[in-house]
Amino acid sequence: MVSTKIASVAMRAVHDPRVNLSVILRTIDEAAAAGADLVVFPEQCLQGYLPSLTRYDLDHVAYQHEHAERVRDGPSVKAVERAARRLGVHVVFGLTERDEDRPEVLYNSAVLIGPDGLIGRYRKVHQPGDEKHIYHPGQDSTVFPTPLGRIGLLICYDACFPESARALALDGADLLVLPTAWALEGGAARPADDRMVEYYDLFTRARALENQTWFVGANLVGQLGDFHYPGFSRVVAPDGRVRADTGPHEGFTLAEVDIAGEIRHARSVGYLGYSFLKDYRPLPVRSDSTMTRR
Questions:
Q1: Sign of CA dihedral 59, 62, 64, 66
Q2: SS3 of 123, please?
Q3: What is the pLDDT of residue 284?
Q4: Could you tell me the strand order of the sheet in which 251-257 lies?
Q5: Is residue 264 over pLDDT 90?
Q6: Of the CATH numbers 3.40.50.1460, 3.40.630.30, 3.60.110.10, 3.20.20.30, which one belongs to the domain with range 4-293?
Q7: What are the structural domain ranges in the chain?
């Protein structure tokens, strides 16, 4: 067994990147002290997620433009790089990214950093609500090789589209990592009973099981703008079972896992001996003219 410790963080963010960065750096230190090899933070944990998806706020648009960073040389990215190098850990965190060549273009991005520096970034493809008015959509996804395994990045709403996770799995991803800002609907008495938490539970477990791969979801917690975030940052195994979860609490959860060994088990004998990726066949979509005439 090759043991890897994965920390998934439920973070309370504010609309102040200096405050958020201090929390990120402190949490990396704490998770590394607990033995973490990979530390995953939520979506937009550096600048803070939008205050609303239905109320277009030009002041907040100005805030995001003022505090956006380029991934290659942004000061916060560099600070996380230094922490990852010093502690020998891998880190994924979400931020507002400024395009390298067009400063007016912003992306909702996740960055992957290792002990040797920047490994890569992913720009969110699927955008809900007013994200479309602030961020440009990403155009593709990439699986990044690391000493821990091959990591595929998704962000929040991407989890609702099984093709995104499947494409990464078919490209060899061992871990699907999802920084998210997944808010409560607000109708339930307890966060665990909220309908949006139920959806989050279904999506994270299904994406893991259907691809027989690891899935790490890291969510915000607490109030920010119009949203209340429930946490439930988690590590899900290739059999779809939740291995560790923060619940509705700030902090991080830690799972010690055998990444390659448990994937091998899941794809050989774990589900009646079936390997879903091996048996997968893309189906062409054709219109049936006879059905149309009926």
A1: negative
A2: strand
A3: 86
A4: 117-123, 106-114, 90-98, 38-40, 4-10, 251-257
A5: yes
A6: 3.60.110.10
A7: 4-293
